[in-house]
Amino acid sequence: MSASDRAEPPGERPVRTAAVIPAAGRGVRLGPGAPKALRALNGTPMLVHAVRAMAASRAVSLVVVVAPSDGAAEVRRLLDTYPLAGTVADKTEVLVVPGGETRQESVRLGLVALPDDITVVLVHDAARPLVPVDVVDTVAAVVRGGAPAVVPALPLADTVKQVEPRTGGEPEPVVGTPERAKLRAVQTPQGFDRATLVEAHERIALEGEGATDDAGMVERMGRSVVVVLGHEEAFKVTRPLDMVLAEAVLARRRANDGF
Ligand SMILES: Nc1ccn([C@@H]2O[C@H](COP(=O)(O)OP(=O)(O)OP(=O)(O)O)[C@@H](O)[C@H]2O)c(=O)n1
Ligand SMILES: C[C@](O)(CO)[C@H](O)COP(=O)(O)O
Description:
Largest sheet: 8 strands, mixed
Order of helices and strands: EEEHEHEHEHEEEEEHHEH
CATH topology: Spore Coat Polysaccharide Biosynthesis Protein SpsA, Chain A
Distance between the termini: 29 Å
Strand content: 15-25%
Shape: globular
Mean pLDDT: 92
CATH architecture: Alpha-Beta Complex
Radius of gyration: 18 Å
Bound molecules: cytidine-5'-triphosphate, ligand LQXTBERG
């Protein structure tokens, strides 16, 4: 057990936290090139930034990277090349496993690789490389405090319309305007009691229904999910402009604190 792990009453299982990083996506919306997680931000692959972000948290003692299915060996070599920068990173072990066809399947394969003593799991997109450590710590702490599922999220800046989707640029009829004050834009890492997340993946896979985030599966089981405050810098690199924003955030960090 690492020094960061919570002291438990005698006879109770210690809490040990792992981060699963799904990194097996192609990055189609980013445009042609290497798989998204391997593209460089400020000269360092996006995935390395994401692993460092998880390893920077005292709570995280294991990171499982879910690599493109044909690229696990390359990802292993890459991670061995880049040291885990950060004061507490040397307590963190990093495993690499091959991913699947969908994000959901990649996360499931990451869960399968977890050792038995892991009790808390954070699931974090490689595509959110700049999440501040405070967000990681908060999510982990709220799960460790007893919440089965915790999601970082932000209030919306835009008004949202529900539409009847049309293809080919046709105007889309609006069917409603949800009350913005009650909406949140969801980020990662999402944190879970391990047993809850594993059960959610097993049940949703059996039902054959996809989900765009892990907490959504837990919600469908009728379990409690809570939101904590996310961070602007935990945005997802999805389209080309997001790369520009990520480089700008890194430049500002360098200027501010020599990161
Ligand atoms: N089969 C997949 C698909 C996605 N992901 C991961 O899930 C995260 C969120 O997915 P997204 O940002 O949508 O990435 P891509 O699927 O790569 O993007 P796109 O849809 O543009 O191809 C990313 O870290 C991505 O690598 C994954 O591990 N396995
Ligand atoms: C998990 C997620 O990042 C939460 O916002 C998001 O749902 C992933 O969606 P994507 O379409 O796979 O990028």
